[in-house]
Amino acid sequence: MAAQKPAPAPSDKPHPDVSRRSQRSRRAIYDAALALVGEVGYPKTTIEGIAARAGVGKQTIYRWWTSKADVLLEAFLDLGEQATQAAGEAHAGGIPDTGDLAADLKAVLRATVDELRDPKFEAPSRALAAEGVVDEKLGREFVTKLLEPSLRLYVDRLRSAQETGDIRPEVDPRIALELFVSPLAQRWLQYTGPISYEYTDTLVDYALHGLAPR
Amino acid sequence: MAAQKPAPAPSDKPHPDVSRRSQRSRRAIYDAALALVGEVGYPKTTIEGIAARAGVGKQTIYRWWTSKADVLLEAFLDLGEQATQAAGEAHAGGIPDTGDLAADLKAVLRATVDELRDPKFEAPSRALAAEGVVDEKLGREFVTKLLEPSLRLYVDRLRSAQETGDIRPEVDPRIALELFVSPLAQRWLQYTGPISYEYTDTLVDYALHGLAPR
């Protein structure tokens, strides 16, 4: 058991074969849930549809989750973890702190640009975001569990920049991060403009140094 | 005819009674379209449903518009005009230019906060925005016709601020405006945080003066 890679979620320790099979089922369910919601939208995504596509019984899903919102939430968390692992060490501990605040913020936003353009991510994320716009409860739940944790990383990095004097002490980091995060989010969500590295770099420069002359 | 208030859309000049009746029908159709999309969402809104709710024949709608997207587009344009008229002179010519850039931007964003909280505006706007997230063609059309014209007003005001030296000359106004417009849009759309006058005032101060110390 010690050499066995542990299953991520169940807290009890099943027989290795069961664990491996569970992991395979979970992965198939996540993939099916994300693909389905991207294709048919949130309202038409059902537990039955996810089960059929994943090749598992409905009861397998109900054993682990209580609703399609729960399945999707975990599928997105898993997708985020995969993206973090793929990005390697740079992101593992949050936002890099090289001492150059502008460079650190630009690096993370460039990685976000890449993520937003990843087809595996785009369709399911849009389907979920669209539903969150008209379903306040779902919107708030997904923001709390999926979006806010990544925004906290910006808060931490901006707080550390306040300690080194790179950000004014009276600035509220939770609002400050929105100056570069929200424009990118809106361009992506609402097609209000093209997104590129040059664009996000510009946002960081404007946010840090202001629009008014110094 | 000279004293008659002209109908807003038809370019030919019908008999006054016909014009008045047309205006009444248009108003009823706009109201029905906005109410319906807010209640059932964009996909389930139909020309038939709008006609039934407005108490007009389907053919009356098809005489003026070719699709539900067209009807909704004009209904939102009309809603925006009503809001502008209700706000009075302050907004009539775009964004005020009192010479105090921060005050002007804060005033317009406070008016936007009021608009976003108006129940007449909220449900239909959310329904349309949600559909735009997953339907790129519709999203782009509505941005071009509904959102971008109001963003151009910010571009104009920021350009005039560049002439008076209140904004750095190298700043791109179309990107700059996103530093205070997009955070408000994202909080409203995605429920990422509360919106208030104090919040939008803070966005303007941060955007103009930057997060870094001077």
Give a structural overview:
2 copies of one chain form a homodimer. The first copy, chain A, has 214 residues and is mainly α. The first copy, chain A, folds into 2 domains: 15-67, Arc Repressor Mutant, subunit A; 88-209, Tetracycline Repressor, domain 2 (Orthogonal Bundle), CATH 1.10.357.10. Chain A is built from 11 helices and no strands. In chain A, helix 2 packs across helix 3 (58-64) and helix 10 (178-190) runs antiparallel to helix 11. Chain A is elongated and about 65 Å long. Mean pLDDT of chain A is 89; it is low at 1-11. Chains A and B meet through helix 7, helix 8, helix 9, helix 10 and helix 11 of A and helix 7, helix 8, helix 9, helix 10 and helix 11 of B.
Question: How would you summarize the topology of this molecule?
Answer:
The structure is a homodimer of 214-residue chains.
Chain A: H1 16-40, H2 47-54, H3 58-64, H4 68-87, H5 89-92, H6 101-116, H7 119-134, H8 136-163, H9 173-176, H10 178-190, H11 197-209
Strand content of chain A: under 5%
Estimated helix fraction of chain A: over 70%
Total domain count of chain A: 2
Number of strands of chain A: 0
The whole-angstrom Rg of chain A is 20 Å
- Architecture (CATH level 2) name of the largest domain in chain A: Orthogonal Bundle
The biggest beta sheet of chain A is recorded as:
none
CATH topology of the largest domain in chain A: Tetracycline Repressor, domain 2
